[in-house]
Design a protein that fits this description.
single chain, 316 residues, alpha+beta, Beta-lactamase Inhibitory Protein, Chain:B, domain 1, 7 helices, 24% helix
């Protein structure tokens, strides 16, 4: 009886040790995810970032009066600008005026679909009187908004934006500029510019804001309306109505020069780097016995490494 009892006790001890080791390994694996720079990437917004995301800005307030209208509100003659040569795809005829030309709203008709629904058809005419019909797939004209028509921009909205912004002095906060020939131009950020006009843009970014800056070539940026989506570029993401340096007056003039050129240097803070390069696509953080470490990753392959909140290394 002695030997079986001893064997049973050894089996129980082996089971306890195995479970304990398993739990210890699991805990080590779990905690390692939060103690080293190799941990699973996590993006966290500070409370201030979240509040700024929700708070309505002065730029949003300025453009609040420029709102789209529904098809039920359009009067005959309401104008739309063609944004893309592919606009022929949305009409029932094989040709359409070139980009930049105007179509005039004519009226609404309906067509029954195979499932019995009455789909709205929008009818337009060009300057020659040719009628173009667009099957919307919507049952009510109230569902069709003037800023959501494919490859068309509401001329009334363009004119309203132009009236609000023309000759207004603002600060541009993006360096993604376009030349007059629509070639990409690496511009400067957070510098004063004067808006010269708002015109029709492209299919995905329907408004073009043209501007001039002292000592630099005339340029423009493309933007969406104020309705924000993850991929949109509304006015408030491109321009500021006040000098951003005043809001960040604790940043030295030397570092502000780097920020305006979209560059970083060792010793800059996370805030300064975010102003210069924008928010990273991914972040990771960890610590050792003496300091905290952060890694920022950008979609174009750039990365920044911070120690105790200051930039110590980066890839341009």
């Amino acid at each position: 009886m002695y030997i079986p009892v001893r064997i049973a006790r050894l089996r129980n001890l082996y089971h306890i040790v195995t479970v304990g080791l398993g739990a210890t390994v699991a805990m080590l694996l779990f905690t390692s995810c939060f103690t080293g720079i190799e941990s699973t990437p996590k993006i966290k917004l500070s409370r201030q970032d979240m509040e700024e995301t929700v708070r309505e800005t002065e730029e949003q307030k300025l453009l609040a009066s420029v709102r789209p209208s529904s098809a039920s509100e359009w009067q005959p003659g309401h104008k739309f600008v063609i944004l893309d040569a592919k606009a022929t795809r949305i009409f029932d005829i094989q040709s359409a005026p070139s980009p930049g030309n105007i179509l005039h709203f004519k009226g609404i008709s309906r067509r029954m679909s195979p499932d019995g629904r009455q789909n709205v058809i929008l009818q337009f005419t060009d300057d020659d009187g040719t009628v173009y019909s667009h099957l919307t797939g919507r049952e009510s004209p109230d569902e069709i908004m003037s800023d959501r028509l494919p490859m068309l921009a509401d001329k009334e909205m363009i004119d309203s934006l132009d009236a609000l912004l023309r000759q207004r002095n603002v600060w541009i906060i993006t360096d993604l500029w376009l030349t007059e020939g629509d070639k990409p131009l690496k511009g400067r950020k957070y510098i004063p510019v004067t808006v010269t006009a708002v015109r029709a843009g492209s299919e995905s970014l329907p408004y073009r804001v043209c501007f001039k800056a002292e000592g630099l070539p005339a340029a423009s940026v493309l933007m969406t309306g104020s309705g924000a989506t993850a991929s949109s570029r509304p006015f408030q993401s491109l321009f500021s109505l006040s000098d951003p340096h005043i809001r960040h007056k604790n940043i030295s003039d030397e570092n502000w020069e780097y920020i305006q050129r979209g560059q970083v240097k060792a010793g800059m803070t996370k805030k300064e780097c975010r102003l210069a390069l924008g928010s990273p696509a991914d972040t990771d953080s960890g610590h050792d016995y003496s300091s905290t470490k952060d890694l920022w990753l950008y979609p174009d392959g750039r990365w920044l490494r911070f120690e105790d909140g200051l930039l110590i290394d980066f890839r341009k």
